[in-house]
Structure formats: C-alpha cells, structure tokens
Amino acid sequence: MEVIETFKRYHRLVNFLSAAQIYLKENFELKEELTQDHIKTRVLGHWGTVPGINFVYGGLSYMLKKYEYLNILLVVGPGHGAPAILSNIYLEGTLGDINPKYRIGSEGMGNLIHDFSWPSGFDSHTSPKLPGSIHEGGELGYSLATAYGTVLENPELVTVCIVGDGEAETATLSASWQLNKFINPVKDGVVLPILHLNGYKISAPTIFSTLNDAEISNYFRGLGYNPIFVDQYTSDDIYIDFLQALIKSFEQIQVRKRNWASYNAVNPSIPIIILKTKKGWSGVKEFRGKKVEDNNISHGVPLKNPSKDLEEFFALRSWLRSYKIEELIDEKGIPHDDILSIFPEPSRRIGATKYAYKEGIKVNLPSVYDHELKFILPGHRSQSRMFELGQYLRDVFSLNSEGFMVFSPDESESNMLEPIFQVTGRRYIWPVRKHDENFSSDGRIIELLSENVLFSMMAGYLITGRQGVLISYEAFLNVISSQIDQFIKFIKQRKKEKFLKPMPSVNLVATSTLWRQEHNGFSHQNPTLINSLLTKYADFVTLFFPPDVNSLIVAMSQCLSSFDRVNYITACKRELPQWVSLSQAIKEFKRGYGHWQNLESMTAERMYDVVLVSIGDYQTNENYQASIILRKLAPSLRFKFININQISQNGLGSPFNPIDKSKEVHNVFERDVDVIFNFHGYPTAIQQLIYGTELAARSQIFGYVEQGSTTTPLNMQMLNKTSRYHIAIASIISASKFNKEINKYKHVLIDKIYDMMSEQSCNILKHGQDM
Ligand SMILES: Cc1ncc(C[n+]2csc(CCOP(=O)(O)OP(=O)(O)O)c2C)c(N)n1
C-alpha cells in the first residue's frame, strides 16, 4: 500500500508541475500568496491529456523498478501533452542530465515552469529536445506504427505506446493495430498499447467513448489483442488497478514470448490497456456553470485569461493549491524521498532508455562494382532498373543479418524487386495458405497496404538506429507527403541536440513512374511530391534522378551511407537504355550532373548553339532520341548534352555542391544560348529552383503537364510536349538565333519533324503501339 500512496503523491506533484508550467511565470513553489502578477499573460498548452500521461509515466517508472529485466521505451501519441513529459523527465533527472539548468531543486523547478511555452523555451509539443522522446506527435496518427518500428529486431524491448482516443480515429492509427501480425515474438520486442480513453478530442466526444466495454473488447480481440480495462469511473482505486494491469500485461507478454518460442503457437495475442480517465483529471471541476474536468473544455487551457479575469484567477488559485505541494517538496524544492523512490536506477529511467540514443548503424554495403552493368554503346542494353536494384538490395540483406529492412505497400513483386526474395521473405506471423509464396515469420520485408503505416514503422526502425528503404508507386507516395514534411522537421530539431547521435536517413524509392502507366492511366500519374520536397531545406532533403542502372546503384549506395536526411529516388521499373559506366556514375554523383560529350554532334571548333538538359530516366532517353534526329537532319547544329542526377532546394546538382556559382553555371549551361530542360516532373519544380536567375531568362522547361492516360510511352511524351520531336523542334528554334545555317533552313527542318510526328501519331492510333 505504501507504493500506492507514493504513486498518488508522485501523481500530485507531476500534475502540479504541469499545470504550473502552463500558468506560472513566478512564485513557482507557491511560497508566497499567489497574485495575478505571477500568472503568464500568454497561457498556452494542452492540459486535458496531461494528467493521464503523468499517471502512465509514474506507473511505468515503478514497473521498471519492480522488474529489473524490463526495458521500456515510451511513445506518446498525444505529443501536445509536453508539460506532462517535461514534468516527469525533470523529476527523474534525465532533463537535468542534459541541461543542468533543469536539475532538481528550486532553481531547476522554477526554470522548468517558467520556460514552458516561453519564447526560446520549451515547445508545447514533445520534441527530440526532450530525453527519451522519439515521437513529436504534432500531426496525429503515427504513434503506434512508430512504436511497432522500434521493436523490430529488438527482442528485449517493450515499447509502451499511449494512443489518444482522438488519434485512434485517424486512418493511419486505425490501420496500425494490425501491425501485431508482423511482430515475431522471439526476434522482436513487444508493443504494449495504452488506449487513453479520456473521452474527448478538441471539442467533441471520441467514437471510442461512445462504445460500451463489450464493443471495445470485441473490436480489439478481433484484432488479436487481449484488452485489460482500467476505468476511473468504476474503480475503487484506479492507482491500484493500473499497477495491477501493468503487472498483468508484462506477465502476459513474458508468457506469450515463452509459449511462442517453445510451441511456435500462431496468433500470439498481446495485451492492450484500455485506460479510461477523466479528461483534465484533478483540474477545475466546474467554471461558470460549465463542466470542465471530464469534458472537452479541459482539452487546451481550461482557464484562458486568469491574469486579467479575477474569477478565473480564483479558480486557478484553488486548483493549484489543491495539490498541496508543500507536502511534496522540501524548502529547497527537492521532492520528498518517497516520491523519488518510484524511479529505477538512473540508467534505466524512461528518459534515459538506450533505445532512444542508439547511434545509427552503418550497414555493410556490397561493392557497387559487383553490380556494374556493362554495355558497349551508350543508348543500348535496355534493362529494368528495379530488377537490378533488387539484386543490389538482396546483397545488402545477405551482408547484414539484421539492421536493414525493406518496406513496401504490396509492391515488391509488381515493382520487379523479385531478387530480394532469394534471401528473405515477407514478414508475417498470422497463418497464410500453403500456396502463398515468400512469407516467413522472420522475413525482412514488411508489406502492408498503407504507405502511412509503413513510413511511420520505418521511422521507428530508423530512429532506433537501423537502416531501411521504402519502395512505392510514385503517384501514391503523395499519400505520405505531409508525414514526410513532419519528419523533416523532426530531423531538423533532432540534429540540433548534441546529446543525440546521427540517425540513418529516410530512403524513399518512387517507381512505377508516371511516364509508363499504360494500363493504369491518368490516376497513376502524379509527381507532386517532387515540388513539395523542393521547398524543404536542402540540408535535409535530396532528390535523385538516376538516368540508368549504374547510376541507380550508386544513388542507393549513397543513400544507405547517409545520415539525417530524406533521400528521394525517382526511378522507373521498366527497361531503358544505359548511359554511363559505374566509375563515371560515381564521378557524376559527386557534383550531381554529367556532361555527355559522346552524345553530342561532331561539329567541333564552334560554340554551342543550345544546351539540352535531361532530368529523369525517360526524359534522358527522349533527349537522346532528339539528339539522333538533330544529328541526322541538322548536322551543323551544335548542342550540348547535360544530364542532371540530383536536385534540391539549393538548386540543380548535388545539394552539397549545387551549380549556383556563376562560373559553374556558365561551365555547365554556357553563356547566352538557350537551355532546354526536359524534366521528369512538373515544369514548375525546376522553375522554382532557377527563378530570378540569369539562367531562367534563357531557359525553356518541358515536363509533365497532366496530359495523357492509357496510351503508348511515346504518345505520352508527345501529349505532354516532352517528346524527342518537341525537344528537337525547340532546339532548332533556339539554335537559329546563333547558327546562320539553321536559321536559313529552320522552317524546312521543323516541317520535317512535324511530318515525323504526325506519321508516328497515325501509326500509334492505327496499330496501338509506338513505331
Ligand atoms: C492529423 C491531425 N489532425 C488534427 C490535429 C489537431 N488536434 C490536436 S489535439 C486533437 C485531439 C486529440 O485527441 P486525443 O488523441 O484523444 O488526445 P487527448 O484527448 O488526450 O488530448 C486534435 C484533433 C492534429 N494534431 N493532427
């Protein structure tokens, strides 16, 4: 019973600290009579979720002390409850360990309370700044999948995930419950979800709050969980009930792991705690005739203006006094020993968990030279790049028995990555039928048809130090656009913290790209994510456009060696010609572009008349085809052939070494002459990079303009005016400004190309294929 009393006193103190963070700018220990001058004028934050998070934190700390074998990582879905996490990490000392300003005692406590939501102080959401926090929780929906990612290949770990009942309504969270089917009870750790059913979202009851216990229970049993209810409304003592629920959960987890190991039993259901608490528990009960505690009114700041409104001030004063903190801390602001006794030894405290601090591993990579695709002439040896990438990734798997996984929404095969199945399978624990191929309980490919769930699961895996690649349709990676944005913010914040080590980069492969959607058509053509990623800091984001197999292998090896970035590779899965040797690809990736003189016209000794620039594999092929037309019809036209393999917010070329210095710009794009870009995505993506520069004034940008559907590859290019014919015509018009001979014959040449184009169009219509 002593434990329960301690737990209650602990809860009182962290609840006081949290409420004080929202409201007090001085008189932090309430040593003087509280006045309105002590109240922050900008009161910010979210109170409603806080007492529940505090309750869970205290209970888990006690469990860590009770069970010496336990390793807990805590993922908090309601990241808006930062005051709760701050109060707990302050008390357990992990906040003071990374910043002495917040060491336990009057000064540290005052700094903590003062700095919350204060300019340059603590955010109102959890962030990587807070020890042990691996999940920011601003955009709701991603907590549970992140938690599941952390336990992959971490058999000793229990990741406890607090899921808000509002968050539980999001599509991503709803699908994430299914991830228990991917967790191997022996090889992986366990996720213990705690559904925090405090009944309300911002302004309305949650759906779960309208279900009865039987409905909730049936729902989770069907998903393979074993629900344990802890209910403030019916409990005699919720503190006792919660600790018992935790004990039961950890014991069940042990039994499940043992049983599965010995009998390989299927469907190893795991516990879930359904925690029903009053939203804003222990806060103001009623104000101006309205229920506050146990109502949505307590979601944010329950009293909005206590520094000015006297009635609010009195309500706040009674609320803060109700915790009787003089019974919980001494004269020097140090909490009484019994309260601090709830914690395990310092290295095992939640904020100190080693899983949040793991240095990102460097996976062993196969030699790129072992994957070189040899060819005799550029423009020949058509090969599917995804198949070749599959072989490279297969070897990454072979060289690393763990620490590397592939995530894909049911598309490893349709995207031609079959070689990976030679060495591993799709991870799945629930039974599948005998003829279902390539499944195994320890496979290292996670396939699930939700890009959102996969992204978060991969994020959890990466943040805890491992490497991964997510491969998907280009069009449907947009589904996670906002999630990627959030993650870039997370990396940016994380990188500032000296106590955190670099984490492996997020690697995304966008394949089944828009230019070949013959049978899927218009709905599958969407390169919007490129535009969005180009608005993000180049310090964190690179977009790769490898033109052929060798370039793709080099791009992937670079991505798997990089840290703290989001790498986005666009590469088709179909067969396309080769252009560069492996050593040339390595050289070109250093600067982000290649100058392919071997594809240029032979008219030497003259300045270039025009510069052709390709970005993207299909567009490189179109420019090459345009170069054949030009060489044949207009041999005196001197064009320069540039291929760009990387872009970023910094501009064209490598983000580390962009082509932005004027000398470099002129070396690559010449002076005065027109530059014709043929780009994989929307022309606006390149426009946003060169806007306002001298280059923009002499550039034409061709790209996808939302034309075409289920048609032939060349017709798709023709409809978007990016075809070889369009590039050749544009080159002639541009070159005619400088080349007298071209100027003289330009109309004849253009007519000839139009004839070629209309012949091609007729043929496509008649025979249904390109000539
Ligand atoms: C994707 C997304 N949509 C909307 C919001 C705005 N929002 C912030 S908190 C919240 C309610 C969350 O309710 P719940 O998850 O139950 O948390 P709690 O009640 O414990 O605060 C909403 C809708 C958000 N943060 N993310």
UniProtKB/TrEMBL annotation:
Keywords: Lyase, Thiamine pyrophosphate. Residues 3-358 form the Xylulose 5-phosphate/Fructose 6-phosphate phosphoketolase N-terminal domain. The keyword GTP-binding does not apply. Its cofactor is thiamine diphosphate. It comes from the Bacteria. One of its GO terms (biological process) is carbohydrate metabolic process. The keyword Lyase applies. Residues 573-771 form the Xylulose 5-phosphate/Fructose 6-phosphate phosphoketolase C-terminal domain. GO terms for molecular function: aldehyde-lyase activity. Gene3D superfamilies: 3.40.50.920, 3.40.50.970. PANTHER family: PHOSPHOKETOLASE-RELATED. Belongs to the XFP family. This is Phosphoketolase family protein.
